[in-house]
Amino acid sequence: MFDAITIMPATHLFYVTIGIALTVWVGRTLRIHGRVFLAKGCKGNEELADSLSHLLSVGFYLLHIGCILLTLKMGGYAIDLVEAIELLSTKTGMVLVVLAISHFAHIALYARIHGKPRYANAPTGFERATTAEIL
Questions:
Q1: Is 0.90 surpassed by the pTM of this model?
Q2: The domain containing residue 112 runs over which residues?
Q3: 117 has pLDDT over 70
């Protein structure tokens, strides 16, 4: 049914399609839902929040699509359907791990833009003291 000549191009095509689809999904999710955090961190400056959101998205897509394309040749060579599925799942799993790391890096960036967290039960204006303030 499948031979070694046709299985690798099909595997590559599936890998690139799945990898880019996952990247676009995560990128759109970060842009849509992260924009609220950027707007708050930019103190209501909508133009700055939109610009920063766009720049982060472009960098995200460049990084991840570049990694997908660079790893296309990595991982071995499949000569039958079982090996092709294993290769595809390994590469797709790696894409998901890298996307997850990037997702958490974006969340950390959004948290950093907001500054220090306030205590929930503290009076307004009371922030957690830093080590330098204690000394």
A1: no
A2: 4-134
A3: no
